[in-house]
UniProtKB/TrEMBL annotation:
Protein name in UniProt: Sulfatase N-terminal domain-containing protein
Cofactor needs: Ca(2+)
InterPro entries per UniProt: Alkaline_phosphatase_core_sf, GAG_Ulvan_Degrading_Sulfatases, Sulfatase_N
Entry-linked Pfam families: Sulfatase
Record family assignment: Belongs to the sulfatase family.
SUPFAM superfamilies named in the record: Alkaline phosphatase-like
Stretches assigned to the Sulfatase N-terminal domain: 1-83
Lineage summary: Eukaryota, Metazoa, Ecdysozoa, Arthropoda, Hexapoda
Length: 118
């Protein structure tokens, strides 16, 4: 936590904290003995190991906690949605991001869950 605080202080000191999307992502989740015969991540292919802790911080985002399971596939669509919906991109980049997010395999964490793909 102290390291994250130091990093955020650097953004404040540089005057960029009000225009920066900060994302912290764990490299893996954790499956336990009740999920699979082996604990840990190396030999355990249980889905729990693919669910990652993830935090987004942007000055235009309200504090919200989502009780959903996120995987690494959720990262890019969520970033694109956040950049588009906060007005952080110019018109050309907004159009490109909006087009890209529709074709990406992952599910954005700020849109309702899609059960079918178009």
């Amino acid at each position: 936590d102290a390291w994250i605080g130091q990093l955020m202080q650097i953004f404040d000191d540089q005057g960029i904290s009000d225009e920066t999307l900060v994302i912290f992502v764990g490299d893996h989740g954790q499956a336990f003995k009740e999920d699979f015969s082996k604990t840990g991540t190396y030999e355990n292919g249980h889905i729990s190991n693919f669910r990652v802790p993830i935090t987004f911080r942007h000055p235009k985002l309200p504090r919200v906690e989502h009780g959903v399971n996120a995987t690494s596939l959720s990262i890019l669509p969520t970033i694109l949605d956040l950049l588009v919906n906060t007005g952080s991109l110019n018109e050309k980049d907004t159009a490109a991001a909006a087009d890209l997010v529709q074709d990406y395999e992952g599910q954005s964490l700020i849109r309702p869950f899609e059960t079918t793909r178009k």
